[in-house]
Design a protein that fits this description.
316 residues
């Protein structure tokens, strides 16, 4: 048994005031060290990017922060609405760049994906079609990680990944054109289970202040610093996957709070059986999450290379 004996909602409680202070100090220090003129934060209207933008503004002041929005022209209007909401609350400069031109040039400008992505209206209809075909998202995700071919799932995954990489290209170009430090908003939960795009906007940046924090803890920070309720109440929405308005429920069939507890248990060397008993789940489900963490290791560690050693001989 590990040092962690109990898994419940209190297991992930933090001191938000202290954590905010530590994160803001980190941002301020790295900004000073960078010798840049300001900071660029990509804003999507979700909780993670909103908290990142708010902490960055608190760390260096609103005059040093620019929010970059990278929507698709026919994308989810909610992302645009909530992105503008946090920008207005923080009173920071903003820039909006539509990414459609590069999507067309890469031949990944799928209008259906763009228009339906993340929209609540279409979720039930699309889910019924997928279930009829035996093509639920969580099954396709696990099969793909295991090396099985899932044609439809992989086709859409490729296009969705391309969109996030296109956003990264735009973000770094804008940051370098204006001598800005790029700040990203990825976090520990999505990275642990591979729900991010390797070399995408949710993977690469100059600094990632929330990278070692679970999403349940980001929510606590958001409450503490006054993120608007409309954003706090949003589901973890990828905004680009048809029929998926909560990526943890869609890809893992679990709410993010349970995912966080499982990950915390695994991090503390608890057995799957112990975790399952304490979070009231079947052990099989915990084993699946454990397998996903293992199978997505290469996503978290790109550009793997062998460790080489030089053998030396003593001079006679």
């Amino acid at each position: 048994m590990s040092g962690l004996n109990i898994l419940n909602e209190k297991s992930l409680e933090i001191d938000p005031q202290q954590w905010c202070s530590d994160i803001e100090t980190f941002i301020r220090t790295k900004f000073i060290e960078s010798k840049k003129d300001g900071i660029l934060v990509t804003v999507s209207g979700g909780l993670d990017s909103s908290v990142t933008a708010a902490l960055t503004t608190r760390a260096v002041g609103k005059d040093k922060v620019t929010a970059l929005m990278l929507p698709e022209r026919f994308g989810n209007p909610e992302a645009n609405l909530y992105g503008k909401l946090i920008i207005k609350q923080l009173d920071i400069k903003s820039k909006k760049i539509y990414i459609n031109p590069i999507l067309r040039s890469l031949k990944i400008a799928d209008l259906l994906l763009t228009f339906l992505g993340g929209r609540e209206f279409w979720r039930n209809r699309i889910e019924k079609v997928k279930q009829k075909k035996g093509d639920e998202v969580y099954k396709g995700y696990l099969k793909m990680l295991r090396g099985e071919r899932v044609e439809t799932f992989q086709k859409y995954t490729s296009k969705i990944s391309g969109r996030q990489r296109a956003r990264l290209l735009y973000a770094y170009k804008y940051a370098e054109d204006n001598n800005l430090l790029l700040v990203g908003a990825t976090h520990k939960t999505e990275r642990s289970v591979g729900l991010f795009v390797k070399c995408g906007i949710d993977d690469c940046a100059d600094i990632m202040p929330l990278k070692n924090i679970y999403r349940s803890q980001i929510f606590q920070i958001g409450q503490h610093i006054g993120i608007p309720t409309e954003i706090l109440d949003r589901t973890p929405n990828p905004d680009m996957v048809p029929g998926v308005t909560d990526k943890y429920v869609g890809y893992l069939e679990l709410p993010v709070q349970q995912v966080d507890l499982i990950l915390l248990g695994l991090e503390n060397k608890m057995t799957p059986k112990e975790i399952a008993e304490q979070v009231t789940l079947r052990e099989k489900k915990v084993l699946e999450i454990q397998e996903i963490v293992r199978l997505t290791e290469t996503q978290r560690n790109p550009s793997l290379a062998p460790i080489m050693t030089v053998k030396t001989t003593k001079n006679e």
